[in-house]
Each structure stands twice: as C-alpha cells, then as structure tokens.
Amino acid sequence: MELAIKIFQFILSISILVVLHELGHFLPAKYFKTKVEKFYLFFDPYFSIIKKKIGETEYGIGWLPFGGYVKIAGMVDESMDTEQLKQPAQPWEFRAKPAWQRLIIMLGGVTVNFFLAWLIYGCLSFFNGETSFDTTKVNAPMHYTNVAKAMGFQDGDEILKVDGKVQNNLDKLALDVLLSDEITVKRNGKEETFATNDDGKAMAFKDENPKAFLTPRFSAIIDTIVNPKTMEAGLKIGDEIVSVNGEKIAYYDELQQAIIKNPGKNINVDVIRAGAVEPLVLPVSADGTLGISSDKQMTKFYETKHFSFVESIGRGFTRSIESLTYQVKQFKLIFNRKVQGYKKVGGPIAIINNMPVDKASDGTVSVDWTAFWSFTAMFSVWLAFLNLIPIPGLDGGHVIFTLYEMIVGKPVPQKILENAQMVGVIFLLGLMLVIFGNDIVKIVMNKF
Q1: Predicted confidence band at 336 (pLDDT cuts at 50, 70, 90)?
Q2: CA-CA distance, 48 to 61, in Å (whole number)?
Q3: Contact call for residues 121 and 377 (beta carbons, < 8 A)
Q4: Distance between CA 88 and CA 102 in Å, rounded?
C-alpha cells in the first residue's frame, strides 16, 4: 500500500509539472499563431494510451512516464522530424516567426515552472506557516560526529556563520555546511574561521543520511520506553540518566554511545528522580539498545511562523529562490572528485522511494499533502533550472541559438541546428541511462 501511494504521488506530481510546463510553450505558440501538432503528457514511442485530435492539435497520454512534449511545426526538436524542414517555411511554422516570439515560446515552460513553485510555496506559507527548529534556543553545543570533525569541527564549537551568513534553522544548517567553503565558530571563547574539508563531506555522503553529522544535544531525560525489560528494571519516564558504569553522562548522545559499547550486558546507571539520585541496573539488548528515547525534548525548540496573505506572496518568491540556490550549489558536490556526490544522484526509482507519506499510529499510510506540495514546488524549480541549461535538446539550447540569432542578426544554419539537436538528444539519453543504472545498482546492492 505504501509503495502504491508513493507511485501515485510521483505520477501526480510529474503530471502536474509536465502539463503546466508544456502549456507554457503551447499558449504563447497559439497566441503567435504557430501550429502545434501534438500536446502529450508522457512520451509515446510507437503507441499512445490515449489520443484525440482537436483542431490542428493531437492531444494524448503516452506510456513512458518520464516527461512530455509539445510538437511545434517547423521546429527542430527531439522527434528529429526534419522532412518538413526541407520545404520552404510556412507562415504558421515556428521557424517563420520573429526571433523574439520564438524566444518567448521557448521560455514559456520554465517561466510557468518558476511561477508554479512561487504559487505553491506562497500557499504553503499562508495556509500552513513554516515550522523550523531554532538552534538559538538550544544552550548546549552541537554534537559533532567523526564526519563533522573530519570537516574541521571540534567538540564545543558554537557555529556562528556559514560562508559569512547566519543560519539558525537546523533543517538548513547541515545542508549549508555540506555546501559551504568556510565556517565561522566560537571556539574556546574566540571566534575562528576554517575551511570545510572535502574529506569530511565525502564521509558524510557515504552515510544513508548525509546530514546526520550535525545534531543538537539534550540532557538524557527519558520520555519514551518501548522495551518491557527496561521498565521491569525500574527505569521510568521522566528519569534523567546522569552516569553509566561510573562515568558521568551530560547528554543523550553520550548515553547512546555508552549503551552501544555494552551489547548483551547489564549496565549500572544513576538516575535523578524527584530530585534524588537512584541507582539502577539495566539490561542492554544484544544489538546494543535499551528501547528508550529522548526525542520529545526537541518539540520545545520548534516554532511555527505564520504569514499574512501579502507576506506569503513575498515569502513564496523567497522560498523559490532559496530552493533554486540550494539545487544549483549542489552541483559542486556532484562533480567534486573527493565528495563524489554523483553517487547519491537518483532517477525515478529513487524519487519514488523517497516520496513522503503520512504514517498513522495504527499503521495506515496516506498522502502527506503538505510534504507532497513542498516536493512538487521544489521539483518545479529544479525542472526550470535543468531546462535552462544550454544543452541542445533542452529549452536552454533553443534559447541560446535564438539569442545568437538576435545578436548576430542571422539564424544558425539549419544543418548545425539538426546536428546539435542530435548530439544533445544522445547526451540526454546517455545521462538517463547513467541515472537509471545508478538506481538499479542501488537496488541490487540493497541500498534502498
């Protein structure tokens, strides 16, 4: 059931994005009286699931759910149908239109994608507000794993700035650190700036959760106990564990490390209960756990900010730019030889696997609509950026050739356009094979 819901969300999100993107090309093309031969959701090599011709345009749904397209007469596109282009240009063809009109048609898709993200983020800010973990409310220093220390952090560091900017949102802080060049911290009472080490970033990307190297610290006050044996041994909700086997415990992460070191053994702990210290003997499971947690303490550090209608308009734009900025910055990790972020790149299979779902306490699974729309907005910005990359076969490639024509005063020769489009299509197909291959390798290696 969970997989079915994830697939449903993926197809719904892609359908919304593709239809609106292609509509961004379709509407200005029709406005400039350019013939649109096809408007398709998904690709239709050899056959389509549904098709119907209305006027001069065939509308349909293909069977290959990896995008969509509008086929505009007189345009060199991914169909590589060049027979029509051998004939003299007709007034209703794309190639017969002024360069400025062709530029608007080509930019229509990415424009719609950006405005869609803006609209979604604005609505989310207005209707839901924004909930974030405020690091300024945590008095204790962050917990730095070996990964963080390999980047250059030291125990006790207080993060002041990332690349010269203050970031108090924990959800963004770890990503900012991964994408950073330098960090400013307060260390031993002094302000110090160090360059983040790529070796540490590479270690982070080897983990299932690359952002887990940075976590806030809390006292070891127990708020959840799921192991009956632990309860039978006398531990109660609300107890604060202050020592394990004679060693003092100040934070919950220190407690976790002490427990992990004693799998299958009994440990002597001191707890503070009702202001008094009580000794207990707790049995650690064979896998090094007690079946306890202290996570509910984190709720008091979350805050939700609400926005008025006017404020949400500006906030929607800001969130769209933030999303775009993060995604562009991630390219330097993808192509970094040490970090090798490309190994984390996934295709449709990985996206489906990571689609958000809402799991109820009774085990039922449903769509988390807030997370769904957040994902759709993020993906819309991502598609806008990808389509603007100046690669033949993408909108950005057509835009570059059109801008060249507008600057130089004459169009790029038809043969060059056709050859460039062929190279672009081959490159994009190869890229798709690499991404799909990455997905398949992860499945085979049981990485999902």
Answers
A1: confident
A2: 6
A3: yes
A4: 18
Say which residue the tokens 């650690």 belong to.
284
Reduced to 3 states, what is the DSSP secondary structure of residue 366? strand
Neighbours of 363 (CB within 10 A): 8
Strand bridging mode 214-215 / 143-144: antiparallel
**Burial label, 52 (beta-carbon count in 10 A; 0-12, 13-18, 19+):** exposed
DSSP state of 93: S
Q: How far apart are CA 334 and CA 345, in angstroms?
A: 8
**Angle, in degrees to the nearest 10, between helices 395-408 and 99-127:** 140
- Residue 63 DSSP SS3: strand
Q: Is residue 80 left, alpha or beta, with left meaning phi > 0 and alpha meaning psi from -120 to 50?
A: left
Kindly list the distances between the CA atom of residue 158 and the CA atoms of 37, 154, 171, 186, 194, in Å, as whole numbers in the listed order. 60, 9, 17, 5, 13
Classify residue 35 by its DSSP letter. Answer: -
Span of 4-8, 263-267, 339-343 with lowest mean pLDDT? 339-343
Q: Which residues make Cβ contacts (< 8 Å) with residue 130, sequence separation at least 6?
A: 124, 304, 305, 307, 315
Which SS3 state, helix, strand or coil, does residue 88 take?
Answer: coil
Hey, what domains does the chain have and what are their CATH numbers? 2-127+374-444 (no CATH), 132-213 (2.30.42), 224-293 (2.30.42.60)
43-56 pLDDT, tens digit per residue, is 888 899 999 999 99
Q: Within a 10 A sphere around the Cβ of 58, how many other Cβ atoms?
A: 17
Helical (H) or strand (E) element with 176? helix 170-178
Cβ neighbours, 10 Å, residue 410: 7
Whole-model pTM: value is 0.85
